[in-house]
Design brief:
The complex is a heterotetramer, with 2 copies of chain A and 2 copies of chain B. Chain A is an alpha/beta fold. Chain A is built from 6 helices and 11 strands. Chain A has helices at 8-11, 33-42, 62-66, 82-89, 100-112, 175-181; strands at 20-23, 47-50, 70-75, 94-97, 116-119, 133-136, 139-145, 149-160, 165-166, 182-193, 212-215. In chain B, strands 4-3-2-1-5-10-12-13-14-15 form a 10-stranded mixed β-sheet. The chains are: A alpha/beta, B alpha/beta. Chains in contact: A-B, A-C, A-D, B-D, C-D.
């Protein structure tokens, strides 16, 4: 089952104004930077973006924010982005903040056909407002619903022509769950290899979850907080 | 004398037990890793998907694909593993992590914590904090006793939007170690040279002082 | 003449479409893999944790660690992957598998299916069947039209404990291809040489015969 | 964090009559056969066993059934075992049959701190009796609760001294979720290697989920349905 598309333009074909997208990554780590650049170039707007973070001012989803292409963000942490804060406080941008574990689990649930589940996270806080509360084992939990997206865009280290993916280190993060939850899932990879190259035992995301795959033309892989020690 | 951030971290490190998996939040908690007591082995989990975090890399050895939850470049120890965010929070929510250390803007005498939002001013998001505080059995808050304006952060009730309710069991500040139970802060230890009176004056919530309060020892 | 098991499998194979992921149950459904139409690429999922199942191994090449959901030794194709049971059923429940083919003891005219239990006599368990039928959009039942006692398996209502309700859309038997909709079996095709009258006689549930019913072609 | 125990006897230490165990495996594939043999030898009885299958008459959990050490089975499919069927139909053995996907998800939920979730599997059947039914997106779902065990016993291909595990092919099956859901998780492995040997990127079960690990003395790895084709 060949899933290969040749260009980023072909990969994001069909993404239209006002759609809901999931985008993998944690901070700037493991983000689909080629696809984001293409969405900026194409000027698709009114987007609802489900992504743990919102990039920084001049990289990642920050680029889409700068151009005001995002209508709504569904994230857990957005603290590295001045333009984001400005748009949110001014009311230009809708924001739905979700506990990180609930965000991850809601994406997985969306991909796994679990419409809703109970979690203790957020009980007694703003996050629980309007949500059902139920006690299990004497502890209150809130009901959280699955998340879905028209397109999920993920970034992997290696991928094969059948859409099987392998992630590197902490660049894995939200990518596997989002790959499961997209109606159409686009994977951009650093290295595209023939089917049969990746060991079946070592595949993180089976190709069944991926509809399109391409090798990104260029990965900047910017580091957000370069931290070192001295020898 | 009040402790500095490193002092707070060093005191918290005394709470570590051999064989524990530990999640350290951003800020002061991160510094705890520098003071692991001798003879004790702990493993650090970072909620972005790594178990067995090591020290920061040497210059030139940074890997953009290897960061902690504070987005800092890190290294890994022998026996480390990587996993996705759902699995990471399965560890946290499923109580496989024995200790969580995190910062706070406010803590209340019944164990509520606020650390993610100042309405109208600052909204960075809760990140993994709500999952951590709702799930962990053993949570230590590391923070300064008062904010920059000199206002106590140990309150009768939190004024800011909550991160979790009734979840904090212990607080270590620049002035004191306090246990939260029975709806009050129980003073366990004083920072070296800091008086009970000073701690009392700087604690807005109910403070219980039972008997002689020892100084922290390092 | 009524089809044999291989004939049923061969007819079902005509339902395959290029690019589909397919889950084949134990028994007749397993045989479908032998009749994939030319020019079509499909990939087989087995719910015990493999995608890209290949044919049975040559003698001496069996691997105890590589089996299908029927516990039979198998091989894998290029591009195969292994995963745990939770992920496997995430694929199924999340509707990532385009076609499910499974056997049944009874099917009713409203699409109910029973295939896991005969009270007091046989209880093997449902295995993955309940997840499969409750989740899949596209379910084909492969079975004989009547049981060994000659009693119709296409009923007004199932008499055995159900595996799923209102989920079967298509049935392929040794006698016919039938679609289930509007609370009835709609006859689409006859097995070569089998008359509409014979099918009618052997179908207990409501049978709709609309116009001329073509013979299956292979 | 060294999790190594030297013998199977040390590994199962603490397992007592009437406890609840989870045991990995699908059919006879990927079952913890050394630990099962030890439980038979020790004669621990009154056990509740959560396991997808119940072995065959003379191997796997069938050995514990023969000796009547099992009080209750929680499984999805038990069709390969005559003694099982006899004990069940005679009422000697309690049996809770659960759809396979719900069984897997309930184990995962137990390990992941999700007390309950909704699934469409089993709606309208015996499985749904006494369970809450709720509609999501116009489709009825039933509420299923997390499963937990006093001990989970899993079998892996390779494991390191810190309890990190790698499974082989379809012997993975239920093992990773059960490893998550045991209060104490015991892993028996074919090959025990020093920490640092397994690549962090290729570990299936992180060591945090494993409390004890040992190298099995002997693995028969019996094949249940040897099926071949001719050249």
């Amino acid at each position: 089952m060949n899933k290969v598309v040749n260009t980023v333009s072909e990969a994001v074909h069909g993404i239209k104004d006002n759609m809901t997208l999931m985008l993998g990554g944690f901070g700037l780590c493991g983000i689909p930077e080629n696809s984001i650049a293409e969405l900026v170039r194409k000027g698709i707007s009114g987007l609802t973006c489900i992504s743990n973070n919102a990039g920084v001012d001049d990289f990642g989803l920050g680029l889409l924010l700068q151009k005001k292409q995002i209508k709504k963000m569904i994230s857990s942490y957005v603290g590295e982005n001045d333009e984001f804060e400005r748009q949110m406080l001014s009311g230009e941008l809708e924001v739905d903040l979700i506990p990180q574990g609930s965000l991850a689990e809601r994406c997985r649930a969306g991909g796994a056909g679990i419409p809703a589940f109970y979690t203790p996270a957020g009980f007694g806080t703003e996050v629980a407002e309007g949500k059902e509360v139920r006690e299990f084992n004497g502890k209150p939990h809130i009901l959280e619903h699955a998340l879905h997206a028209d397109y999920a865009i993920v970034k992997a280290w290696k991928g094969d022509t059948e859409g099987n993916l392998v992630f590197k280190a902490t660049a894995r993060n939200f990518n596997p769950m989002m790959a499961m939850a997209g109606k159409i899932t686009i994977a951009e990879v650093e290295e595209l290899v023939p089917a049969g190259t990746l060991k079946p035992n070592e595949i993180h995301t089976p190709g069944i979850f991926v509809q399109r795959i391409f090798q990104g033309a260029r990965f900047e892989k910017r580091i957000e907080q370069r931290t070192t020690r001295t020898k | 004398m009040a402790l500095d951030k490193n002092g707070i971290a060093q005191r918290i490190a005394q709470e570590l037990r051999d064989g524990w998996y530990v999640n350290l939040g951003i800020g002061i908690p991160t510094l705890v890793a520098n003071y692991i007591p001798e003879g004790i082995e702990v493993e650090f989990q970072s909620e972005n998907g790594v178990l067995g975090m090591g020290p920061f890399p040497f210059e030139g050895e940074e890997d953009a694909d290897l960061i902690n939850a504070g987005k800092q470049t890190i290294t890994t120890m022998k026996g480390a593993s990587f996993f996705d965010s759902a699995t990471s929070f399965a560890m946290i929510r499923g109580q496989h992590v024995q200790l969580t250390v995190l910062g706070a803007m406010e803590v209340s005498e019944n164990g509520d914590i606020a650390n993610w939002k100042i309405p109208g001013k600052m909204v960075k998001g809760m990140g993994g904090a709500m999952d951590l505080v709702a799930s962990a059995d053993n949570i230590i808050v590391a923070m300064m006793h008062s904010n920059r304006a000199g206002v106590s952060k140990l309150l009768k009730a939190c004024s800011l939007p909550l991160t979790g309710v009734g979840c904090v069991k212990k607080v270590v500040t620049d002035l004191a170690v306090l246990e939260i139970k029975t709806g009050a802060f129980h003073l366990l230890e004083r920072a070296p040279g800091v008086s009970v009176e000073e701690i009392q004056a700087k604690t807005e919530g109910t403070l219980i002082v039972n008997g002689i309060i020892p100084e922290m020892s390092f």
